[in-house]
Design a protein that fits this description.
6 helices; Rossmann fold; alpha/beta; globular; single chain; 7-stranded mixed β-sheet; binds glutamine; 3-stranded mixed β-sheet
Length: 208
């Protein structure tokens, strides 16, 4: 390293992977890059081992599950999560982090990690997609604009799961945290507000 060249401070900008099998990967990469992290797409077990944290994007959980099986990522993901890799899942990503799933496709598996039961496509036909303002524990400032697209909700959460927020419409749990694992029913990657990604970056840094 030439003299005078700044040594990158990894702890100041952690490397966060975005699981890039399917879904809104680019949006998460952009939100993470604007939240003080370096972000890279992750498709292979070797790439997974190089990151300090991982985002599981919104998309379609049945496709994520099938591709995770084809890419030999199911077991490595489970191992990394149980070893303490911080992870944030939005929408389909929330489903993938659930220990238990209701209304999944036949045989549908998740990575698990959060002691919760998630109901897939929970909000029903009339309200397939909607936006609402929501307040979350641990997120200071004005309410967040939350975008729900065929969203799941958390039907039951274990004692170690911190409930961060519920939606105004159905009063269902839509944001949770268990240790280094964070999940939202909605898509913070689709709005310019980066406060949830900033919270995740803080979790990865061990600041909270
Ligand atoms: N309904 C989708 C699923 O089951 C999730 C939708 C989303 O991520 N926007 O995976």
């Amino acid at each position: 390293m030439p003299e005078g060249f700044p040594v990158p401070d990894i702890s100041a900008a952690p490397l966060i992977g975005v699981l890039a099998l399917q879904g809104d990967v680019r949006e998460h990469v952009r939100a993470l890059s604007g939240s003080g992290a370096r972000a890279i797409p992750v498709r292979r077990p070797g790439e997974l081992e190089s990151v300090d944290g991982l985002v599981i994007p919104g998309g379609e959980s049945t496709t994520l599950w099938r591709l995770a099986v084809s890419f030999d990522m199911l077991d490595p993901m489970r191992k990394m999560l149980s070893a303490g890799l911080p992870a944030f899942g939005s929408c389909a990503g929330m489903i993938m982090l659930a220990d238990r799933l209701v209304d999944g496709a036949a045989g549908q598996q998740t990575f698990g990690g959060i002691d919760m039961t998630v109901r897939r496509n929970a909000f029903g036909r009339q309200v397939d997609s909607f936006e609402s303002d929501i307040r979350l524990n641990g997120i200071a400032g004005p309410a967040l604009r939350a975008v729900f697209i065929r969203a799941p909700w958390v039907e039951q959460a274990g004692a170690d799961v911190e409930i961060l927020g519920t939606d105004a419409r159905a009063d269902r749990i839509v944001a949770v945290r268990q240790g280094p694992l964070l999940a939202t029913s909605f898509h913070p990657e689709l709005t310019p507000d980066t406060r949830i990604h900033e919270l995740f970056v803080d979790i990865v840094k061990g600041n909270t």
